[in-house]
Amino acid sequence: MSEQSRHTALSTRHEAHGASFTDFGGWQMPLKYRSELEEHHTVRRAAGLFDLSHMGEVLVSGPQAAAFLNYALVSNLAVIPVGKAKYSLICTADGGVIDDLITYRLAEDSFLVVPNASNADVVAGELRQRAAGFDVAVEDQSDTTALVAVQGPTAEAVLLDLARPEDAATIRDLKYYAAVEVELAGLPVLLARTGYTGEDGFEIYVGTNFAVRLWDAALEAGAAHGLQPCGLAARDSLRLEAGMPLYGHELGLDTTPFEAGLGPVVSIKKADDFVGRAVLEPLKAVEPARRLVGLRAVGRRSARAGYDVVVDGAPVGTVTSGLPSPTLGYPIALAYVDAAHAAVGTEVQVDLRGRPEPFTVIPTPFYRREKPAGAPQ
């Protein structure tokens, strides 16, 4: 592993399980343990255990925490009830996306902001700068916080085997995009019902010093439920099937929320001014010149990021992510295309290294799990 990259507290565990590593956002992370295809199917059929400790965690607290986040982010964070979470964006003054992130309201005056790994330092710095004039503290807790995810249909069963009996009902009743403080494997954690796979699942925030204990306990408890460790390759194919954006592919400084189909995340109705409002508010009322769409291959060849989307030989867009879908059995992709070619059912081609291949614009998400009666929404 590269000495220049950072390592999570679970690196030795990944080595012991035979992981192949890759650099991601300056971190050495497990790409896969067995095969990415096997790990992908494990999450769809049972449960996968992911180390996400490369993600950032920034605590925002103080009397004006809600008002500050309403200024710093494009969404209305002040309306989140305690114990709930919201997906949002932090944008530049000219409307470009610095990062997409999840924010949890831990208390009336306390929020946990979770940026992506490659942007964690940037987001923490932006929040500190934007905090000027607000009665608020911004504390980067990334180095002292580990994040482990259990994702898949049997995820709840795994968590129940880790929990105290008195917490069982709390875990069963936890709704999607909600979080609660409980004990798992005898350790205090923040348990959130969130994820990036399209499946039911949980993300577990724990002190870095306890990460190994939690990981080992989860694998032991999960053995009866088909739980296996999974790497970033499976995480990428899972999130693409679920139509979820990846920063640096579908999102970036040259992307507005409206082009990415994230217009509803931008709260123009909130009274507060926010960074980027002067540019984003007028854009909400107009059709973007390009849009992020889903593509399905007519044939068997896959599109990859950076390939041109063409119509009648002329470029009309660019693929941002693409691969053969393990669950669906055919190639899928996300791409930015001119608005004139973005309607569902539109036939386009992707230039696969000089050979145009037919694709069709289809709705996203590509995959949507079947939810049993009474399942969390």
UniProtKB/TrEMBL annotation:
What domain of life does the UniProt record list for this protein's source?
Bacteria
Write down a Pfam family by its short name: GCV_T
Entry keyword set? Aminotransferase, Transferase
GCVT N-terminal domain mapped to chain residues: 11-270
Recall the GO molecular function terms of this protein's record: aminomethyltransferase activity; transaminase activity
Q: Which InterPro entries match?
A: GcvT (IPR006223), GcvT/YgfZ/DmdA (IPR028896), GcvT/YgfZ_C (IPR029043), GcvT_bac (IPR022903), GcvT_C (IPR013977), GCVT_N (IPR006222), TrmE/GcvT-like (IPR027266)
- The catalytic activity of this protein is classed by the Enzyme Commission as 2.1.2.10
User: Domain named Aminomethyltransferase C-terminal: which ranges?
Assistant: 290-367
Q: Give the record's GO biological process terms.
A: glycine decarboxylation via glycine cleavage system
Question: Which Gene3D superfamilies does the record associate with it?
Answer: Aminomethyltransferase beta-barrel domains, Aminomethyltransferase fragment, Probable tRNA modification gtpase trme, domain 1
Keyword Aminoacyl-tRNA synthetase found: no
User: What does the entry list as the binding residues for substrate?
Assistant: E203
Provide one Gene Ontology cellular component: cytosol
- Known SUPFAM superfamilies for this protein? Aminomethyltransferase beta-barrel domain, Folate-binding domain
Which reactions fall under this protein's catalytic activity? N(6)-[(R)-S(8)-aminomethyldihydrolipoyl]-L-lysyl-[protein] + (6S)-5,6,7,8-tetrahydrofolate = N(6)-[(R)-dihydrolipoyl]-L-lysyl-[protein] + (6R)-5,10-methylene-5,6,7,8-tetrahydrofolate + NH4(+)
Question: What is this protein's function?
Answer: The glycine cleavage system catalyzes the degradation of glycine.
Q: Which family does it belong to?
A: Belongs to the GcvT family.
Q: What is this protein called?
A: Aminomethyltransferase
Q: Which organism is it from?
A: Arthrobacter pityocampae
Q: Which gene encodes it?
A: gcvT
